Amino acid sequence: AMYPIKTLHIPILGDIGQGMLHDSPQSNALFLPAMVYFSYQMLRMGIEDLLTLVDTGVVENLNLLFSVGNHMRLDEHMPMKYQAQRTLDWLIYQLLIEKFKDDKRVSIVTEMSPFIFQNIRGHRYLFAHGNQVGYKNKPEKQAGAISNFIATIRALFDSPVYRKKVGLTGETFSRAVIGDIHVPVSFPRLLSNGSLNGQNELGVNWGLEPIPAGQQLFGVSTSHIQTWQYFLDCTEVQRENPNSYAIFANQFDKEFGR
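and the corresponding structure tokens:
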């Protein structure tokens, strides 16, 4: 590495399960209680695997951040009040917090505001599910939606009232990271990182561009909001060459799926 990785930030930004959106009640392989338990187990295993990086000295510690998505909501529409507690993402996160709260290798941001600000090497990062963006199947429309999101959030938190209340000086935020649109997209001031599920039947039937299953990893230094970026493609692991996570998922589906 060009510089030591002090903290590995892990933003878990919602839509952990499919929930009840679209035709999910008819097509989901798992009912909601099983979906919650499965999602928790997968995230728990992932965090425990990442903790080996701490044990081997690759990173010093992990930092977990949470924001709820719209898929696991319990209401017909995304609630505005008590938003986090009215989604099953919240329940999954509480199980993770309970599991790792006493682990000295892990720091946890327990607040689940729609907008979470985190100082990373002197840069103010915004983490959010990104409900206000939405997926657009044309690049120019997606770019417009992202630009509108950035402008709206900047205006919201650039308010003199907000700045005075929290004592904010300098830029509103350096960069935003969202998950809602479920495609890997990278802009100078925004990164979409919610495409671990990869291609699916819904995307095919909606005529959406096929995407790989994966996550974007990136580094931050004191002088740059991003120094490197790497897309971790999980498509082969998920489909042709199953690892321990895929094996667990297949076994879970056989035991608890419809």
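(Above: one complete record from the training split.) The longest helix spans residues 32-55.
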